[in-house]
Automatic annotation (TrEMBL):
It comes from Xiphophorus maculatus. Belongs to the glycosyl hydrolase 1 family. Pfam families: Glyco_hydro_1. InterPro entries: GH (IPR017853), GH_1_N_CS (IPR033132), Glyco_hydro_1 (IPR001360), Glyco_hydro_1_AS (IPR018120). It comes from the Eukaryota. Keywords: Glycoprotein, Glycosidase, Hydrolase. The active site is at E459 (nucleophile). Homodimer. Gene3D superfamilies: Glycosidases (3.20.20.80). This is Lactase.
Length: 597
């Protein structure tokens, strides 16, 4: 019960029962924790709740006679938020034991420009990528870093395969460098040396019993195409279709999983509004909407090429990967706050592809802001009825990149605004807070909003900066908590999640911040000319989750994951969390204004 706590008197209370010190009889009232603790005593621990396992979806293209209809839920984000909002912090963090389906995909990610190097090797040199030009321009990248050498994966393929085998993944996600295949971006000249490199990589992966998941475009556009307008020029739709056709024809027999675009939101906003990513354009008018419009149409054309020419023989799956934070509404009584991120983050690209056309909310919001800005029409382009029909349903699964949760609001003056809750645990990146509870909510939202498609989490990870510490306890904590939330979504919410991919395999070039922020499971020693790879502690931890295919109940026996001594791990993290809490300022929220509608 609450009692006298030394020099703190009665101001601090540790009791399971509240004592009314005003009443002379000192009555005791049990707190909620008293009932909870009594239940633990009665059960002599934590009784495993048996769940019917939701059967995973086999990796085969879904067959639909008609496209899915638009969502009939007025606001799936509100439905999901209201389901989970009664949860206290303790409930959100409650551990859940269980396993994923037997054919669950476990992977790790990378991208060409961030790891390959060989920036002008074997025929790539005549026409570079927009990131080659961007990083070679002084002032764009921290510490003047470039991807000229990066992790030198172009010449260290065997080392990367060895690293993948150590993690025990079943899948490896990597991207193809467009200018390494088509130096000027067109089919006028196909660089066979570039194709041979990726064929060798595919052969090496398959020999190691690791299946590839290949991204067509992870931001490294040929500079020759940017010189004629890049994603603003509608002719790029045809260029991308031809590029995809070449990869499907030459690499497709050995690839079952394809991604057309990685994070189109980042391409549009960081590359064409904020100018902090290549091609470095700062033009927040109609440009991000035009760029996104063309990307959506280019994705659809690539999907149709595969569907019409290669699906019957290759039997693979093609989709797009969108990035999304979970959006906690800043004002729980304001419908606009529920919908802000849904339309301008995830829904911008997913709604046309999965449900047909831009959402009515997005159309209305952009129109209102356009008119308020003195324009006579909306900055958001319109799809023709024929384009809507061609785009709708161009997916075989839902590719999702997720890192954290944000608090969102919709301001009529400033557009979509995100705020960071400073009580959330921080990482090595200013934008990334450790908020695992949001991933389960986001997965359930996708289920309700987009018809429960097969979901592959194509990126999820956490960074550090500063001195190197191979005992990356924060990353072990991150993976444990986030993957356990995925398990909850799978077993408790019947979300059709079929794969999880950690970001990233190696400490690599993190775009504008260079090599200062490290997401890798493997440390890359940049002071060593050989760029040696050293596994961090998180490698064995993640590989144990993979080997156990989730989090088996310790009561069912000794498993590889239990050997990781999770209790000791949590204890070692206490100091980290305590220091983070001391640096937090619960009363503060820092706003970030994304872009005007």
């Amino acid at each position: 019960m609450d009692g006298f706590e030394g020099n703190k008197g009665y101001s601090e209370r540790f009791g399971l029962h509240q004592v009314d010190f005003v009443d002379g009889n000192r009555p005791r009232t049990p707190k909620q924790s008293a009932y909870f603790f009594a239940q633990i005593i009665e059960q002599n621990g934590f009784v495993s709740r048996k769940q019917d396992h939701f059967e995973g979806v086999k990796i085969s293209p879904p067959r639909r006679s008609t496209p899915l209809p638009p969502s009939e839920v007025p606001s799936a984000s509100k439905v999901v938020w209201e389901k989970f909002t009664p949860q206290k912090k303790f409930d959100r963090q409650m551990y859940h034991y269980g396993n994923f389906s037997q054919n669950f995909l476990w992977g790790v990610s990378s991208s060409a420009y961030q790891i390959e190097g060989g920036w002008n090797a074997d025929g790539k040199g005549p026409s570079l990528s927009i990131w080659d030009k961007f990083t070679h321009t002084p002032g764009n990248i921290l510490q003047h870093d470039t991807g000229d050498i990066a992790c030198n994966s172009y010449n260290k393929m065997e080392d990367d395969i060895a690293a993948l085998k150590k993690v025990k993944v079943s899948h490896y996600r990597f991207s193809v460098s467009w200018p390494r295949i088509l130096p000027d971006g067109t089919t006028e000249y196909i660089n066979q040396a570039g194709l041979n490199y990726y064929k060798k990589l595919l052969d090496s992966l398959i020999a190691a019993n690791i299946q590839p998941q290949v991204t067509l475009y992870h931001w490294d556009l040929p500079q020759a195409l940017q010189d004629v307008g890049g994603w603003e020029n509608e002719t790029i739709i045809e260029r991308f279709r031809d590029y995809a056709d070449i990869l499907f024809e030459n690499l497709g027999p050995k690839v079952q999983l394809w991604i057309t675009f990685n994070e189109p939101f980042i391409i549009a906003i960081l590359g064409h509004v904020q100018g902090t990513h290549a091609p470095g354009i700062d033009r927040p008018d109609t440009l991000p909407y035009i760029v996104s419009h063309n990307i959506i149409k280019a994705h659809a054309e690539a999907w149709h090429v595969y569907n019409d020419k290669y699906r019957a023989s290759q039997n693979g799956m093609v989709s797009i990967t969108v990035n999304a934070d979970w959006a906690e509404p800043r004002n729980p009584y304001k419908q606009e706050d529920y919908d802000a991120a849904r339309s301008f983050y995830l829904g911008w690209y997913a709604h046309p592809i999965f449900n047909g056309d831009y959402s009515p909310l997005m159309k209305r919001s952009v129109l209102e802001q356009s008119l308020a800005g003195g324009l006579t029409k909306s900055r958001l382009p319109e799809f023709t009825p024929e384009e809507i029909k061609r785009i709708n349903g161009t997916y075989d699964y839902f590719g999702l990149n997720h890192y954290c949760t944000k608090s969102w609001t919709n301001s009529c003056y400033r557009g979509v605004v995100l705020l960071r809750d400073r009580t959330w645990l921080e990482s090595g990146s200013h934008w990334l807070t450790m908020t695992p509870f949001g991933l389960r909510r986001l997965l359930k939202f996708i289920k309700h909003e987009f018809g429960n498609p097969p979901i592959i989490i194509t990126e999820n990870g956490v960074s550090e900066n500063g001195p190197v510490d191979l005992n990356d306890v924060h990353r072990k904590y991150f993976y444990e908590k986030y993957i356990n939330q995925v398990l909850k979504a799978y077993l408790l919410d019947d979300v059709n999640v079929i794969g999880y991919t950690a970001w990233s395999l190696l400490d690599n070039l993190e775009w504008a911040v260079g090599y200062t922020e490290r997401f890798g499971l493997f440390y890359v020693n940049r002071s060593d000319p050989d760029l040696s790879r050293t596994p961090k502690a998180s490698v064995s931890f993640y590989s144990s989750i993979i080997s156990c295919n989730g989090f088996p109940d310790p009561a069912s026996g000794t498993h590889e994951l239990t050997k990781q001594k999770l209790c000791e791990k949590r204890t070692s993290l206490y100091g980290l969390f305590a220091r983070t809490a001391l640096m937090s300022h619960p009363q503060e929220r820092s706003p970030t204004f994304l872009f005007p509608l």
